[in-house]
Write a structure and sequence with these properties.
The protein has 326 residues and is an alpha+beta fold. It has 9 helices and 9 strands. Helices cover 29% and strands 16% of the residues.
Length: 326
């Protein structure tokens, strides 16, 4: 991550105002987590507020890792577009061409349908996953799609895991290894981890307002990303400045079935063909994360909590208002 002033917090009225606001949110028990605000390449706020677990014994640190929930899906979608840009696959390729031994419906679904959740695949059963390949086993039991591919929208994680399997088949690498080799290492996202265990890493526990930690989500399929706020900033900044995939690929990943539908990168606003803002929200148990990027103002806000209170949108808007002197 390259920021002005050697990553030293800009001591301004704005940074003090954001600090006061975030301290108030923490005191009111509306935010327990880490937050990073970068305006025009300068850190104006870098805060760690609260605790790593429900027992409130250890305070949060800068190097703590948080689960991203749905935001982790950005990595498989971007991996697909990286392979497309190399000419190794087409978005019009049928799923059946990748040799995954799936039922006849795989002749109908194209890669592009997976990216915008219009494949017709039903919802994914997380409770049934006991082994690394159980996502494929679930797919092989599906006899009929919910609708014809491209005709409707259903936010199903089958689309996500199938993207990962396609990346593996095309690249010849396990999905996590592909991401580490082609994304994390080149961008120097040195602290990022897949399927991080808080008992064995800097990952935090998620917990409810009753102070009880959620059970550690030991998911067999290695594809769930955990990031620090610093690495999250590096990812957002690098992605939207064209360092990972080109702008045409980014535009495709913002292509949603409808205004109310989720795209692979969350939600992007374009004006006259130019991306002007982006946000993506995710949650998993009591983890919650929000990324916001105002490209015109060059403002990036990263919010991560391990004690979900559904206040991140309001907090992000308030920080934006402080930046704009409102």
């Amino acid at each position: 991550m390259v920021l002005q002033s050697a990553n030293i917090l800009a001591k301004t009225n704005v940074s003090m105002a954001i600090n006061d606001y975030m301290e108030a949110m923490n005191k009111a028990e509306f935010f327990n987590g880490n937050a990073l605000v970068v305006h025009k390449g300068r850190i104006v706020y870098d805060g760690q507020l609260g605790f790593t677990s429900g027992d409130k014994q250890n305070k949060l640190q800068k190097d703590n890792l948080f689960a991203l929930g749905s935001i982790t899906k950005e990595f498989n979608a971007v991996a697909i577009m990286m392979l497309k840009e190399k000419g190794l696959l087409s978005l019009n390729d049928k799923v059946s061409t990748f040799g995954l031994a799936l039922p006849a419906w795989s002749e109908k679904i194209q890669v592009k349908h997976l990216l915008n959740y219009t494949s017709g695949l039903p919802r994914f059963n997380f409770r049934a996953v006991k082994a690394h390949t159980d996502d494929l086993e679930q797919l092989r039991t599906i006899s009929k799609l919910q609708f014809e591919p491209g005709s409707d929208y259903l936010y199903s994680n089958h689309n996500t895991f199938l993207q990962m399997r396609i990346v593996e088949r095309v690249s010849g690498l396990p999905f996590a290894e592909f991401v580490e080799k082609h994304i994390l290492k080149p961008l120097k996202m040195t602290q990022a981890l897949f399927n991080a265990n808080p008992n064995k890493s800097n990952a935090v526990f998620s917990f409810g307002n009753d102070g009880k930690n959620d059970a550690v989500f030991d998911f067999p399929i290695k594809g769930l990303m955990y990031l620090t706020t610093e690495d999250a900033y590096t990812w957002v900044n690098s992605l939207f400045t064209g360092k990972v995939i080109n702008h045409n690929s980014i535009a495709h990943l913002f292509s949603a079935f409808s205004d109310n539908a989720e795209a692979s990168l969350g939600h992007g606003q374009y004006v006259d063909g130019k991306l002007v803002s982006y946000y993506h929200h995710g949650s998993n148990f009591n983890f919650e994360a929000l990324y916001f990027y105002d490209l015109q103002e060059d403002l990036i806000i990263i919010l991560m909590t391990n004690n979900k209170d559904k206040k991140l949108f309001e907090i992000s808007k308030s920080i934006g208002a402080i930046i704009a002197n409102r």
